[in-house]
Amino acid sequence: MCGILAVLGCSDDSQAKRVRVLELSRRLKHRGPDWSGLHQHGDCYLAHQRLAIVDPASGDQPLFNEDKSVVVTVNGEIYNHEELRKKLVNHKFRTGSDCDVIAHLYEEYGEDFVDMLDGIFSFVLLDTRDNSYIVARDATGVTSLYIGWGLDGSVWISSEMKGLNDDCEHFECFPPGHLYSSKTGVFRRWYNPPWFSEAIPSVPYDPLVLRRAFENAVIKRLMTDVPFGVLLSGGLDSSLVASITARYLAGTKTAKHWGSQLHSFCVGLENSPDLKAAREVAEYLGTVHHEFHFTVQDGIDAIEDVIYHIETYDVTTIRASTPMFLMSRKIKSLGVKMVISGEGSDEIFGGYLYFHKAPNKDEFHHETCRKIKALHQYDCLRANKATSAWGLEARVPFLDKQFINVAMSIDPESKMIKKDEGRIEKWILRRAFDDEEHPYLPKHILYRQKEQFSDGVGYSWIDGLKAHADQHVTNKMMRNASNIFPHNTPTTKEAYYYRMIFERFFPQNSARLTVPGGATVACSTAKAVEWDSAWKNNLDPSGRAALGVHLSAYNAETPLSNMPSKVIDNIPRMIEVPRVAIQS
Questions:
Q1: What is residue 549's predicted lDDT score, i.e. its pLDDT?
Q2: Where do the domains of the chain lie?
Q3: Averaged over 451-468, what is the pLDDT?
Q4: 90: closest CA among 54, 65, 127?
Q5: Which of 124, 231, 518, 562 has its CA 20 to 30 A from that of 431?
Q6: Residues flagged as binding site
Q7: Cα gap 416→559, rounded to integer Å
Q8: For residue 70, is pLDDT > 90?
């Protein structure tokens, strides 16, 4: 992922202002170590830190139209850029960059071109002919973006909060799927899919339609001119991504440049569930597998860096970001610049273990809609910033616009978890890739129980974090928590510990307002906590807080020293789905 920074209408075109913009842009240099660019037009500044993935030789930014009257700084990947170029036959392109189409599309279609883009993106476009500008962010917020306002009337845009928090009177997250125009001064939602209204869909489940939609989503993300790989935890989502990539890589342009041997990467504590499962999947798929180990102390030592880069105090995001942050550094050291990952599946298909308690299909569907809409504050934030901290790009095929439309149009009755019928979480996704004749994955991997990333890297990781926080946060501090942190008051010592670090880096009130809050169990929304009265006394984002569902469940109030390794009573065991092949 690249880093973008723009200061617009600041009423200051001095050299000192230019130097300040350059200084702030360098705070984003970790996102784009390959090139730095800055374009100034009067009192508007567009800066860019580039991570070169497509056309690394000539795609430096900012980008322009033919006469340089339209200027664009963009972070993203436009997967349909070749198709879009064919619609722009009267235009001349300066580079082979996939993002080069944006300025030209604006000339042809005005602000309405954004929905034509198939990809992930955050961009600022300046039209120097009238000094107007537009800012846009991709559909679900895979790329991070913030907007701020200065006392001088300026508008600031940055890929990360640290690019503007010291210079703006107020700032906030730029909403996903929205466009901001200087001509109106308001946000407009450009992304309006059918599911957004949360009306209950009724399309019958067709496993082949779902399978083909996801395969297409993965294949289009193989667009790269640099070495890449896949993140492989051994769970369902990352394993499917790896399997499809391995299956179709050989016929792509990428394979001609870098070979058809796929590289896979996994991180975990010694003997963690993910390491074992990923090793097995990698051997099955024949990938060149790279396994990275870390200790609880390694993770604890990195917490401050993680919070600085991820820019959150949300407990589950920090828990999961830390191993991903450590792994990304190792991956980048191998010369890899892009990875494909499995975020988004649990939100779309109700894969979190608390979905076992969804009371009906309407509630199930509403919760998936709420989860997708909030992804930019959680898993997208983690995947984007944990990798970008080391100049690595993460692509997420489950959040492909077309795939989401297909998956969210399915009657949610098909997504419901029904243990008596052998339907575990994400059953329709598992069923779509259960092919006896040409198997994608070993059967037991295809039907492995959901493990949240922060759990799968090793159960002692979360337990170790809690123990560390207990040493640094006293009971007296907790009693005064509501006075010290009246907004999103931390309710655990772990949350208090993270909040202290966050406030040191980002002390502004605007900063603390960018982080979501509310009760959660196993990553649920606050609304879904109401599904089971027992959860109200066991609030923890770990999947193991789903009592009676997770095979290694725990009670959040149980002391660490007394925590059971297995809950052996009243646990519904996974029932294997009948082995019925899908005919392609």
A1: 61
A2: 3-192, 196-541
A3: 76
A4: 65
A5: 231
A6: 98, 231, 267, 341-342
A7: 34
A8: yes
Q: How confident is the model at residue 547 (pLDDT cuts 50, 70, 90)?
A: low
Q: Which residues pair with 394 in a beta bridge?
A: 339
CA distances 311 to 368, 505, 513, Å, are 25, 9, 12
Residue positions counted in the chain:
584
Task: Give the other-Cβ count within 10 Å of 175's Cβ.
Answer: 17
Given a contact cutoff of 8 angstroms between Cβ atoms, the answer to whether 28 and 5 are in contact is: yes
Q: What percent helix, strand, coil does the chain show, rounded to 5?
A: 45, 15, 40
Whole-number Å distance between alpha carbons of 584 and 581? 9
Q: Which residues are annotated as a binding site for L-glutamine?
A: 98
- Mean pLDDT is lowest, of 259-263, 315-319, 436-440, for 259-263
Q: Which CATH class is domain 196-541?
A: alpha beta
Report the distance separating Cα 69 and Cα 463, nearest Å. 56
Whether the predicted pLDDT of 544 surpasses 70: no
Which pair of tokens denotes residue 40?
């100034």
CATH architecture of residue range(s) 3-192: 4-Layer Sandwich (3.60)
Q: Which has the closest alpha carbon to 220: 55, 79, 342, 76?
A: 79
pTM to 2 decimals?
0.91
Q: Which residues of 420-437 are buried (b: 16+ CB within 10 A; e: fewer)?
A: eeebbbbbbbbbbbbbee
**525 half-sphere exposure, CB direction, 13 A CA radius:** 19
Cis check for the bond before 442: say yes or no (omega within 30 of 0).
no
Helix axes 493-505, 459-472, angle to 10 degrees: 70
Query: How confident is residue 258, by pLDDT bands cut at 50, 70 and 90?
Result: confident
Tell me how far apart the alpha carbons of residues 361 and 173 are, in angstroms, rounded to a whole number: 32
Q: Does residue 44 carry a catalytic annotation?
A: no
Q: What pLDDT is stored for residue 571 in this prediction?
A: 26
- Cβ neighbors of 15 (< 8 A, separation 6 or more) are none
Q: What is the DSSP string of 350-418?
A: T-SGGGGG--SHHHHHHHHHHHHHTGGGTHHHHHHHHHHTTT-EEE-GGG-HHHHHHHHTB-GGGTS-B
Per-residue pLDDT, 249? 93
Percent pLDDT > 90 in the chain is 77
DSSP 170: E
How much is the mean pLDDT over the chain?
89
Q: Is residue 354 packed enough to be buried (19+ CB in 10 Å), middle (13-18) or exposed (0-12)?
A: buried
Active-site hit among 2, 10, 44, 168? 2
339 forms beta bridges with 229, 394
The band of 546, judged by pLDDT with boundaries at 50, 70 and 90, is: low
Give the C-alpha separation, 285 to 442, whole Å. 10
Q: Is the pLDDT of residue 583 over 50?
A: no
